[in-house]
Structure formats: structure tokens, C-alpha cells
Write a structure and sequence with these properties.
- There is one protein chain.
- With 394 residues, the chain is an alpha/beta fold.
- It contains 13 helices and 13 strands.
- The chain folds into 2 domains: 244 residues, Type I PLP-dependent aspartate aminotransferase-like (Major domain) (Aspartate Aminotransferase, domain 2); 130 residues, Alpha-Beta Complex (Aspartate Aminotransferase, domain 1), CATH 3.90.1150.10.
- The strands form 3 sheets. A 7-stranded mixed sheet has the order 1-9-8-5-4-2-3, sandwiched between helices.
- The longest helix has 32 residues.
């Protein structure tokens, strides 16, 4: 038994980030300015994206991506029930309809075959697919690109979990060179993410879409404050669309610049922890370890075990409580959207509307996985899981 409680996912902030924030606070500029632009440039260079836009959150990135694509009232966007509510919320915010389809049994990512079935029978004006690279495992992008090509659809990727994941050797968020697609990728830098700015996000994509999104992100104005108030700026601006207030500050970017430089080291530690978990749990018949397909490099934002409940005398909720008794923080990612009262009631969903998502939701549990974990922390998580299984197996 541990002496102290192990939190589920605290941030990994070092002295470099702290000193950069202090320097920013002592400068003449703390809102969107030169550090934000530097962060955008370095992030785009890191993943190989043609352009990037720093924003106040991953949700903001999703929202301005939809707006920049011209998606609005009368349109529909296909997405997954296995995600955080913001994915569907932003579709509703632009006046479109979220259309949910079920997930693959192994990765729990959106199922391309279910997208095809939905497109064949739907009478809605589907304009885009919003796939989620769940837990950091990239979706089947080849299948999604082909569907988008055949049906003239945009793709807006939710990569909140997927930095620095790769699909067939390319970072998620870079654009495939041989495909002429309308595609943008949205990242989150929330406190628990692989790279954090406390709150924040990034949008990557073709330069023309990024510039359109940039205007949407700051009141629809033609110039931001740095372009107006710096020595090289001009006071004049025009409002060209009814935009939002989604800009990132230099204070946030100060954190992000150093987090980006540390990301390879962070990722190496995440891989090591995931490897130890897999080795520890793969031979326990009461547990199912996460899938990793050979064509991807997993970001390991989350390590999600699946419980074979028929072999245990407790349900998932009790398993979580037993882990808490053993001083290990855990979580569940996610409660499917079709179970949430707003979407359930508005669209008439039942639990079995998406049977794979519902079945797997009942048995998933997310374990602690972050760079600050020591080997002793990892050992204590493994031992706690072993102990719960031993205690409550049939």
C-alpha cells in the first residue's frame, strides 16, 4: 500500500517554463504577440505542418476549423460517440447537426465501415467527418481519406490525445503530400495533455484555411493587437466576419515553447510506462490491454485497460473504488455522448444505439500515465491492479 495518493494526471512543469512565464510577465507584452507566433512556427516545424494557429483551447480549434470550412445551419458532421462532449458541442455551435457512428471494437476509434453505412442511408447534408484519435492511437486515415474523396467531405481531426502520434510514419497534424483534401487538425494543450499550456490549443492545416481560421479566432478582425500596437503595426483594422475570442496569450505560449522542446523526452517516458503496463497485464485473463496497430506510433496520452467483467465479481465502478482505496487515481474516458442527457433526449438515442461504444464503455478504466511518474509509482499501479484482480476474480 502506498503512503501517498497517486494523482491521475498532473502536469510536468519545470523551471524553464516558470522562468519563461516570469520573463513574459516582466516584458511589455503578455497577450497574443511574438511568443505566440514563435510557438506557432516551432510547432508547425516540429510536426511538419504547412501552417499553425495557436488558440485558447482545443475546443476553440475545433470551432474555428468548422467555421473556416464554412460548415453551418443545414449541414451535418459525422463524429464518434467515444469522445469528450466538446466534439459534438462545436458542431451544434455552428448550427450543424452531429451525426454519431459506432466505433471499432479494437481501437475504439470511429469505424470507417459505419461511416459508409451512415452516408448510404442518410438524407442529411453531410459536409465533414470529425474523427478522434482516441487515447493517442491514430484512426484508420487511409479509409477516412478515401471516404472523404468519394463523398467530397472535409476532415477535421480531433488530435487532442494524439501529440506526437504518427500514422504510417507521418505526424498527425501534418498533411499528406499526395492528397488534395480539405483537412485540418486540432490539438489540445489542457493541463493533462502530453504538451500543456495550462489551457490552450493549436490548429494545423493549409495556409489558406489557417488564415481564415485566424480571423475567426479574434472577433473576425483583420489585424490582431500585436499587428496594431507594436512599433511595426497600424491602428487600422476591419471586422470581416462575426468571429470569436479564442486567441492564445504569450503567457501560455511561454509554457508551450519549453514543453515542445521537452516533448520527445516526455514521449519516451510515456512509451516506457506503457511498455511496462503491457508486460504486466497482457497475461492476466481478467484484463485486456490496449490495441496498437503496426502502422501507427501511439502517443500514449491515456492507458486504458478493459476489464473482462464476466471473470470478476465486481463492476467497473467498484474496481475504480478499490483502486482509490489502494491510493491510485484512475478515470474513465469517456462516457459516450449518446448517454449524455442533452444528446440522448434531443436525438432519441438509447444505450444500444451504438452497441460497441456502450459495451466497451462499461469496462474501460484509465490508469495513471505521465512523465513525472517514478518507477516506484508504476510498480504501485501494477501491484494495485494485481491486488484488485486477485481479490475479486471468480
Amino acid at each position: 500500500m502506498r503512503e501517498n495518493f497517486l494523482p491521475f494526471s498532473p502536469p510536468s512543469i519545470g523551471e524553464e517554463e516558470i522562468q519563461e512565464v516570469i520573463a513574459t510577465l516582466r516584458s511589455d507584452w503578455i497577450t497574443t504577440g511574438p511568443k505566440v507566433r514563435r510557438f506557432e512556427e516551432e510547432f508547425a516545424s516540429f510536426i511538419g505542418a504547412p501552417a499553425a494557429l495557436a488558440l485558447s483551447s482545443g475546443t476553440a480549434a475545433l470551432h474555428v476549423a468548422l467555421a473556416a470550412m464554412g460548415i453551418g445551419p443545414g449541414d451535418a458532421v459525422i463524429t464518434t460517440p467515444m469522445t469528450f462532449c466538446s466534439c459534438a458541442h462545436v458542431i451544434e455551435h455552428v448550427g450543424a447537426r452531429p451525426v454519431l457512428v459506432d466505433v471499432e471494437p479494437d481501437t475504439l476509434n470511429i469505424d470507417p465501415s459505419e461511416i459508409v453505412k451512415t452516408l448510404e442511408r442518410s438524407r442529411l447534408n453531410v459536409r465533414a467527418i470529425l474523427p478522434v484519435h482516441l487515447y493517442g492511437h491514430p484512426c484508420n486515415m487511409d479509409a477516412l481519406w478515401e471516404i472523404a474523396r468519394q463523398h467530397d467531405l472535409a476532415i477535421i481531426e480531433d488530435a487532442a490525445h494524439a501529440l506526437p502520434a504518427r500514422y504510417k510514419g507521418r505526424f498527425i497534424g501534418s498533411l499528406p503530400e499526395t492528397r488534395n483534401l480539405r483537412q485540418m487538425t486540432c490539438f489540445s494543450f489542457y493541463a493533462t495533455k502530453n504538451l500543456t499550456t495550462a489551457e490552450g490549443g493549436m490548429l494545423t492545416g493549409p495556409p489558406e484555411f489557417i488564415e481564415e481560421a485566424r480571423s475567426w479566432s479574434l472577433h473576425g478582425m483583420s489585424r490582431d493587437a500585436w499587428r496594431r500596437y507594436s512599433a511595426e503595426g497600424s491602428w487600422y483594422y476591419e471586422v470581416v466576419r462575426p468571429g470569436f475570442k479564442y486567441n492564445m496569450t504569450d503567457i501560455q505560449a511561454a509554457i508551450g515553447l519549453h514543453q515542445l522542446r521537452k516533448l520527445p523526452k516526455f514521449q519516451a517516458r510515456r512509451l516506457e510506462i506503457a511498455r511496462r503496463y503491457n508486460e504486466a497485464f497482457c497475461k492476466i485473463e481478467e484484463l485486456q490491454v490496449p490495441t496498437q496497430r503496426p502502422e501507427v506510433e501511439h502517443a500514449w496520452h491515456l492507458y486504458v485497460l478493459r476489464l473482462n467483467l464476466e471473470m470478476l465479481r465486481i463492476d467497473r465502478a467498484r474496481f475504480i473504488e478499490e483502486m482509490k482505496v489502494r491510493k491510485i487515481g484512475t478515470s474513465v474516458h469517456f462516457i459516450p455522448l449518446h448517454l449524455q442527457p442533452y444528446y440522448r433526449d434531443k436525438y432519441g438515442y438509447s444505450p444500444d444505439s451504438f452497441p460497441v461504444a456502450y459495451r466497451e464503455y462499461l469496462r474501460i478504466i484509465s490508469l495513471p500515465l505521465y512523465p513525472r511518474m517514478t518507477d516506484q509509482d508504476v510498480d504501485s499501479v501494477i501491484e494495485a491492479v494485481y491486488d484488485v484482480v486477485r481479490t475479486f476474480r471468480h
